[in-house]
Amino acid sequence: MTEPTQSPPPATPATPEEVARLSAAAMWAEDHASRSLGMEIVACGPGTATVSMLVREDMVNGWGLCHGGLVASVADSAFALACNSHGMVTLAAGFDVTFVEPARRGDLLVARAREVVVRGRGGLYDVDVVRDRDGAVLAVFRGRSRMTSQTNPALERD
């Protein structure tokens, strides 16, 4: 009779890039809001993330411009991925957004988030939302994060 084989426990991620990738994949799998808006992860790494969103017909306001809340949403999604890239569940403590130029139906928006500073459990992140076709900055977002004591479930060992 042969002994049943046991699978080895999952390996701890070896690099900060792998932690960022696994954290993003776990978050995105459950982020129904971002995915329902057609957002896609373009890139992610330690303290960084890039997310894109095509402005659809159902995203424009009465003036034919992309609703500002949706421009903020693509920035917020990039911010969320960037601040959760270190493997700890991290939440938004707040954000400010400045709209520089309107987005229109058919524009591909690209939100590029970068970590400015993390001290203790708090962090600051800047996100530029640009129009893909010409690189014009449409909005500038500053997010404030608060890290919890919970490890991203995708990184926990059984």
From TrEMBL:
Q: What family does the entry list?
A: Belongs to the thioesterase PaaI family.
Q: Which SUPFAM superfamilies match?
A: Thioesterase/thiol ester dehydrase-isomerase (SSF54637)
Hydrolase keyword on record:
yes
Q: Which domain of life is it from?
A: Bacteria
Q: What Gene Ontology molecular-function terms does this entry list?
A: acyl-CoA hydrolase activity
Organism expressing this protein natively: Mumia flava
Pfam families, alphabetically?
Answer: 4HBT
Name this polypeptide is given: Acyl-CoA thioesterase
Concerning InterPro entries, the annotation shows: Acyl-CoA_thioesterase_PaaI, HotDog_dom_sf, PaaD, PAAI_dom, Thioestr_dom
Kindly state which keywords UniProt assigns to this record, in alphabetical order: Hydrolase
